[in-house]
Amino acid sequence: MGISLSMPSSTERRFIDPPLRSDEHSSGVSWGAVIGGAFVAAAISLIMLALGAGFGLSAVSPWSNIPASATAVDSAAIAWLIVTQVLACALGGYLTGRLRTKWISVHTDEVFFRDTANGFLAWAVALVMTVTFLASTAASMAGIRTVEQEGAGNYHAERLFRSPAPQPMDAALQAEAGRILTNALRPTDSAQGDRAYLARLVAAKTGMTPAEAEQRVSQVVQDARQAEDAARRAASKLLLWIFVALLTGAFSASFAATIGGRQRDHVKAL
Question: In the predicted model, what is the mean pLDDT of the chain?
Fold first, then answer.
């Protein structure tokens, strides 16, 4: 009595061995996970920034007559900005890697690259969302800054016409002096003539001698230029640290996405 061995047909083999899914033409970007992680990163960033502002960790001075300085952007505010980026972007990147689709027939190195790219995309989308959300606030702050600059110019113009005996101030004369003073701060050919004209206005209004009026104009111009230089240096320092914080956030999101992706691939179905 013989036993016949036969190979299962192709139809039978199809039900015995489940077919493997091919990821050859699948997208390397899981946009659902990227957008979800971006929303989380943006939300955590706003929450952390609000919390930092509540504790006084802000780089913006609340006093309009005090320009930003090197001490205004203190180390605590900078550290909080970096911590905010690290925590928010790391959480958003981790969720991006954990929620993405599972690639079956993809090499490990390619999976690592895709997770890194998805985390970076989540950071980029969160950054664009945050900037878009804060666009109106930034415009409002720019408007406030313009008003503050005009107020500072009026203050320096008022200093020009101070006298021992207080006198009513001519608004038109003050406005003219403010415009001339603003132009005198710039390195233009007419700056010297503007200073001489201001000195004549000061001498005529206050009764000072021409030499004293020129000395006062020179002192006011020097103080105004120093205030502008201090504000410019503080703005440059703040922008540099913002760049460092954003770069740290991009790295945190990309690295956390690889961690979430590895944990996603190790999940086994019940």
Answer: 74
